[in-house]
Amino acid sequence: MITSKLLIGEIYKTFGLVCSGTTGNNESGSYFDFTPLDLDASTKFKVRLTIGWRSMECRFVPGNFSRPLIEGMGANFADARTQISGYIDYLKANKCEINITINDVNKELSDIEKCNGVWESFEFSTRLFPFAQESISESEQLIQIDKLLISTFGILISLIGIDEENSFIPGESEGDVSYRTAKMHERKKINRDLCIKFKGTVCQACGFDFERTYGEIGKGFIQIHHVKPVATINSGYIINILTDLVPLCSNCHSMAHTSTPPLSIEEIKLLLERNSNVVS
Fold first, then answer.
1. Is 83 exposed, middle or buried (0-12, 13-18, 19+ CB in 10 A)?
2. What residues does 33 pair with on adjacent strands?
3. Are 189 and 166 in contact (CB under 8 A)?
């Protein structure tokens, strides 16, 4: 059974964000409300996930004193745009409807940066239709819910600027990684987690699956390849999860970095195809 506790765990596992959860029913179906904790009154909000008979929707619900929150979201948009566009592209690829309204005017992502002046109101919702929960398994339901819920929280966190608890991957010692600000995402564990959540743990070049080959010890194992090498990314660049990160097995990842710039995924696939009939 899908519970608010289970979904709260998914939010925390992805973003390190602790939420409270409540449930209920209305004319649209059953709903779950998720409210991040430890935020002051001016930044409080919740996300409502509504699961109906044939559709599922996630909606941003600002708190009672939300004006500073929404003004801050408007001010942060330029820095967050790349990250947000990745989530929106992902939602669209999964046939989700998206509604963004700023100052009572419906906006496409490309129009938002043309929105002059202060944001006085902001609405966001995304809807999956059809969603035939009665004809799919509980695990498949969770996958669909996860896509909608995690993407919604990702967009809001990008706009609001909530930082995750761990700003770098333990064990890495690359330059001044521990001093980087919240706006520099290239080595954050959150990006690895989101890449795996959205793209899985099967190598995107050769199809190798560590869990299928090695069993339980291979579960969740994969390397994440930066299409643009970290060393070439300037301090203002914000990672787009969908276009900048790719799951690769150890072999394909190593081969990608045999040249500068790295081989593309298509180039690696072509090499594999050309050498597939070579007998060792």
1. buried
2. 22, 48
3. yes
First to last CA, the chain: 50
Do residues 31 and 17 make contact, with C-beta atoms less than 8 angstroms apart? no
Query: Comparing C-alpha atoms, which of 82, 18, 1 is closest to residue 9?
Result: 18
Nearest by Cα to 194 from 11, 37, 4, 18: 11
Using alpha carbons, select from 243, 250, 280 the residue that is nearest to residue 264.
243
Report, as ranges of residue numbers, the positions in the chain whose pLDDT lies below 50.
Answer: 164-186, 279-280
Task: State the helix-helix crossing angle for 67-93 and 138-160, rounded to 10 degrees.
Answer: 140
CB under 8 Å to 234, separation ≥6 — which residues?
Answer: none
144-188 pLDDT, tens per residue?
Answer: 898 899 999 999 988 887 654 433 322 232 333 333 333 333 356
Q: What radius of gyration, in Å, describes the C-alpha atoms of the chain?
A: 20
Instruction: Write out the DSSP string of 62-110.
Output: E-TT-HHHHHHHHHHHHHHHHHHHHHHHHHHHTTEEEEEEETTEE--HH
How far apart (Å, rounded) are the C-alpha atoms in residues 67 and 73?
10
Handedness of CA 176, 178, 181, 187 (dihedral sign): positive
CA dist 6 and 192 (Å) reads: 21
The per-residue pLDDT for 251 is 94
Q: Which residues pair with 51 in a beta bridge?
A: 30, 56
Sign of CA dihedral 176, 179, 232, 197: positive
Tokens matching residue 55: 């559709």
